[in-house]
Design goal:
With 56 residues, the protein is mainly α. It is built from two helices and no strands.
Length: 56
């Protein structure tokens, strides 16, 4: 009985250590955002202007 308990405690400790290590690595990961292209913004603006219905 004590052997099973000791093995269980060791397994739980290993799982907790792995969870802490992976979480700390995830927080250290640097996220980046791609810059927007001014050409794309200009094209989108032109498309928006051309898609408007003429007013009567």
């Amino acid at each position: 009985m004590i052997t099973v308990l000791a093995i269980s405690v060791i397994i739980v400790a290993i799982v907790i250590v792995l969870a802490v290590v992976t979480t700390s690595k995830a927080y250290m990961f640097k996220h980046t955002v791609d810059s927007t292209d001014s050409i794309s913004a200009d094209q989108e603006e032109m498309e928006n202007k051309s898609n408007k219905f003429p007013e009567n």
